[in-house]
Amino acid sequence: MRPRVTFLVTYPREVDPAREAVAQDIAGLLTRVDGRRIHISPPERLRRIFPERLFGLWLLGALRRIEAETDIFHLFHGGLRHFPLLGFLRRPIVYSVVAGLRADRPVDARRIGALATVTVSGPSDAALARAWGATRVATLRPGIDLARFPRAAARAYSSGDPFKVVIASAPWSEIDFVRKGVDALLGAAAADDRLRLSFLWRGRLLESMRARIAGHGLAARVTIIDGRVDMAAALADAQAAALLVSDSSIVKAYPNSLMEALVVGRPVLVSAQIPMSDDVGGEGAGVVTPGASPEDVRAGLTRLMANYADYAARAQTLPRERYSRERWLEEIVGLYGEAASARGREA
């Protein structure tokens, strides 16, 4: 019998599901389970004034009514937080931490120990979650639909030629232009006329981005793609992909764009704050920067271009199955069975 799962999500409601990584993950899970998706965060206009700890409390009556039709509640959220809502639910709860955990943002152990399972993307986050009191922690490397991203032919690069980079994590707010390294990337392009940057956008802050591009005089070398795009084709046409942040909590621990680049066979530029950087650095499939400062970005791009043949060769030989969504789906569905069985033994 297929598990009956109610997915609780906190990503913005107005986002195109085809361009939202968590929405794509849940769409994959819905091929394996009988489920529904419920937003527990408020509308975006209220999000800044509405404390996270209160998310979903207004839905308590509705959630209690559907418990009879639910075997598992599965919450996806960027970090590990205490949501009082969860304490009122009787079914087992799987809590998936989507972004990287920060050691300076601990959670009270008494408030997360009752979760059936906490899933994280890497061993360092698993250690933090356990230290904070999570009793059942599963480390699951996220994945993507490999069929959509066939290995592309290798690309060469000679010093002095144009160097194309795809950047797919767009800002949600003005501060993200700094926190996501967008301003630093534009500054690097202004200083190095070899760089050609393609930013995949999602409608927000578009005029602000255009003003920045015009201010740097980069209209001929920086492209904004605001809408759906064939990501496999975009990566095949580029030398590399990049994603740099100063804060691990604002992007997925394993960003889809970086997984897509590696399975296509393109090296990446990534900051050490993103847990996936352990894979990149360990395999030599790209450059890991200390952060997202202008100096970090310029030095990282210079290193990537100077040693491109080596990084590209490593990316071409990286095992694609490492980032299989099918593998991830099987692991998640297995967790549902374990959580339900554990609850049955405790009852």
List the helices and strands and how they pair.
Layout: E1 4-9, H1 21-29, E2 34-39, H2 44-47, H3 60-66, E3 72-77, E4 93-97, E5 117-120, H4 123-132, E6 137-139, E7 163-167, H5 176-179, H6 182-191, E8 195-201, H7 206-216, E9 222-226, H8 231-236, E10 240-243, H9 256-264, E11 268-271, H10 277-283, E12 286-289, H11 294-306, H12 308-317, H13 325-346
Parallel strand pairs: 1-2, 1-3, 3-4, 4-5, 5-6, 7-8, 7-10, 8-9, 10-11, 11-12
Helix pairs in contact: 6-11
Task: Report on this structure.
- By secondary structure, this protein is α/β, with parallel strands linked by helices.
- It has helices at residues 21-29, 44-47, 60-66, 123-132, 176-179, 182-191, 206-216, 231-236, 256-264, 277-283, 294-306, 308-317, 325-346, and strands at 4-9, 34-39, 72-77, 93-97, 117-120, 137-139, 163-167, 195-201, 222-226, 240-243, 268-271, 286-289.
- The strands form two sheets. The protein has a six-stranded parallel sheet. It has a six-stranded parallel sheet with strand order 9-8-7-10-11-12, sandwiched between helices.
Q: Descriptors for this entry?
A:
347 residues, alpha/beta, six-stranded parallel beta sheet, 13 helices, globular
